[in-house]
Specification:
Aspartate Aminotransferase, domain 1; 14 strands; 13 helices
């Protein structure tokens, strides 16, 4: 190979690297292994993991385990979709374009907004893009978010805000109900406020019951109202577009995509059909049209405000790809369930959470939920009265084959020893009873 390319030695391939920083000794690597030995080695390493598929898990917080119909997996694994990285050439990408168009259409119906892109990386990146979009449209530099927000989404948003110099300010909450403080919102809605962001359900699982009042206050101040959602909840809850949302973002992972150790995810992004919003929307839109010769139906990229081509420095976003295969899975999932099926899944999630809260709250030393508000499928569990940290409680659960909730004390110290637990349609009553029995044994043993 060296002779063919006209190079005397391997070292000649690295002449651009200064001599003084080159490694002068062989790499400290183990001896080469055969394929059989590699497989054994990897299996031994992977056996140390304890995925939720092999144990009872109550983890949520942004990645939720739901049942994925077998045909959804089978269809997304077809080579036509797996290898279709991005539909740059519409004449040879009609299948992918149509699937993404259907994804946009179903999400638009779900959130009750007219325009949906295809798509963003995840909920966090969609939120960051929404904040920038609000700033571009209003020519303002302040963005309000709830204090009780996912730490990951907050960190991503703050990173997005650095470049354009946006100020991210927090809105306080009622310590009893968790609801956003309306007086704080009105006080912070100044002339420099570009948008207000609300999550419904919230990161801690409770529902924000004042969304219409918040929307009215935001619009009266000339700002934009952004709502973050778990799309499964919309099988049961009122759509954000119906209570005044201008932009909706969310996480599409629960729509037919596995947890996969937290990724890849699917960022949902939708907005109202006003041209001033659509033209400032990040990502790209897939459109349906007809051909000039005979009026045959066809699909194309109708709007792509990206920097990679066309818009360059005037692009609305530097996101140059999207999680198309995850959007394809979401399209198959939504089409398979339909409105009634999605509602049944949402009802089961909410019912399981309600049952779990009732069972766990009956255990002496535990309190759930910590906020007096309706919840969807996630809820907070406090163990202050057990004189045990939530991490220690989780450790004891893990030894008994149960993954507990996400510790919240690090980000929200005012909540004390509290964890965030989640239920979905995958949890039977027997699963929840087993959790309650195990926690009772742990707490009883401690006391």
């Amino acid at each position: 190979m060296l002779r063919e390319i006209g190079v005397a030695s391997i070292d000649d391939l690295f002449v651009d690297i200064p001599e003084k920083i080159r490694l002068k000794r062989p790499l400290k690597l183990p001896q080469a292994m055969s394929e059989l030995e590699v497989k054994r080695h990897m299996k031994a390493m992977l056996a140390k993991n304890k995925p939720f598929t092999q144990m009872l898990s109550f983890l949520g917080g942004g990645a939720w385990s739901h049942y994925i119909p077998s045909h959804v997996r089978a269809l997304t694994q077809r080579s036509e979709f797996v290898t279709s990285y991005t539909p740059y050439q519409p004449e040879v990408s009609q299948g992918m374009l149509q699937t993404l168009f259907e994804y946009q259409s179903m999400v638009a119906e779900l959130v009750e907004l007219d325009v949906v892109n295809a798509s963003m990386y995840d909920w966090a990146s969609a939120l960051g893009e929404a904040a920038l979009m609000c700033a571009r449209i209003t020519h303002r530099k302040r963005f309000l978010i709830p204090k009780l927000i996912s730490p990951g989404r907050r960190a991503t948003l703050q990173t997005y805000a650095v470049g354009p110099g946006l100020e991210v300010a927090e809105i306080g909450y009622d310590r009893k109900t968790g609801q956003l403080d309306l007086s704080q919102i009105r006080a912070q809605l100044k002339k420099d406020t570009a948008g207000v962001y609300v999550e419904n359900p919230s990161y801690l699982g409770f529902l924000e019951t004042q969304v219409e009042e918040i929307a009215n206050a935001v619009h009266k101040a000339g700002a934009l109202f952004v709502v973050g959602v778990n799309p499964i909840s919309l099988g049961l809850l009122k759509a954000p577009g119906d209570y005044g949302a201008d932009i909706v973002v969310g996480e599409g992972q629960p729509l037919g995509n596995p947890v996969s150790f937290g990724g890849p995810c699917l960022g949902i992004f939708a907005c109202r059909s006003e041209m001033k919003l659509v033209r400032q929307m990040p990502g790209r839109l897939i459109g349906m049209t007809t051909t000039l010769d005979g009026g045959k139906r066809g699909y194309c990229m109708a709007l792509a405000t990206r920097e990679q081509y066309i818009r360059r420095e005037q692009a609305t976003s530097n996101i140059c790809t999207n999680n198309s295969l995850c959007a394809v899975a979401a399209a198959f999932y939504l089409a398979s369930l339909g409105p009634q099926g999605l509602r049944k899944v949402a009802e089961r999630c909410a019912a399981n959470a309600s049952y779990a809260m009732k069972k766990l709250n009956a255990i002496h030393g535990l309190e759930t939920p910590i906020f007096d508000a309706p919840h969807f499928n996630e809820f907070s569990l406090n163990c202050d009265d057990t004189h045990m940290s939530i991490e220690k409680l989780n450790s004891k659960l893990l030894k008994r084959g149960i993954q507990g909730g996400i510790p919240l004390r690090g980000e929200f110290p005012e909540l004390g020893e509290t964890g965030l637990l989640c239920t979905t349609e995958l949890h039977s009553r027997e699963c929840i009873d087993h959790l309650a029995k195990t926690l009772k044994e742990i707490v009883g043993g401690k006391r």
